[in-house]
Amino acid sequence: MTPEAHGPPETAPTGGPDDGRPPDLLLAEPDRELAREVVARFLNAGVRTLVCHDGAEALLQVGARRPRAVLLAAPLPVVGAAAVTELIARLHPVPVIVGAGAEGAAEATAALSAGAVAFVARPYRAEEILPLLTVRGSSESTARMLVVGDIELDVEGFHVYVRGRSLTLPVREFLLLRYLMERPNKVVSRRELTKALWGADKLDSNTLTVHVRRVRNKLRDEAGSRCTIDAIRGMGYRLECGRDDSAAGSRAGVKVNRG
Residue 162: enclosing H or E segment and its boundaries? Predict the structure, then answer.
């Protein structure tokens, strides 16, 4: 199939690839109306989006334009989402997000196995996708590998290692750990974390607590890390490495718990 058979890719009306810069996001979405709606929401958030409508065109545009991230619909015509994800990982590694409803669940699962970093619902909710893009783009000068204590985090590859052993985290937990690793030994407020990871000022009061607890437990129980995420009552959370609990809790005037 020739590129002409696909038609030209669509772009956001301003700040698109005509300015010579790589797009922030390539969206492969066969539903043209849905694609237009999503692009408008992304544009309002400052995300420069390139749109195509099947997997073959997505592969061509990833090679030509080198977007910073890719969002693939599932099911995806011509070349499926799983095959596109595998080829992107092999030829032009960038984070791939896959979006699917009930009819695309099997293809989305295959794409995750092929290396996609996150699954989101389709039709898309911008509030689920934007944090994945803005957290990644907020510090492009950050080194590819973050190292804090015995934790290594591959920023671009979305991998976490503790003492050389791989630790699997869902994308939101990955982004939470990354945010704290970029600010080691510093207290980060609940509001700051909520804004950075969900793009909102407020959430259900238990949502952030549950995510923090999951990351903490995986670091400790699955990976045997010496690092922990301390809850500082009334203030927020702090990633601490190399200190035992008694030392962390002995600081005057600061209440440390594991909640």
Answer: strand 159-162
Q: Decide: 110 and 81 in contact? Cβ < 8 Å.
A: yes
SS3 171: helix
* 173, 179 contact by CB (below 8 A): no
Which residue type does 46 have?
Answer: G
CB atoms within 10 A of CB 19: 9
pLDDT score of 244: 46
For the chain, the first-to-last Cα distance in angstroms comes to: 56
Amino acid at position 203, single letter:
L
Q: Which residues pair with 52 in a beta bridge?
A: 28
pLDDT digits (tens, 9 = 90+) for 214-256: 999 999 999 999 999 999 998 999 999 865 444 334 333 334 4
Burial code of 5-14, b = ≥16 C-beta within 10 A, e = fewer? ebeebbbbee
* DSSP SS3 for 100: strand
Q: What is the mean pLDDT of residues 99-109?
A: 88
Put the strands of the sheet holding 145-148 in their side by side order.
Answer: 145-148, 151-154, 159-162, 165-167
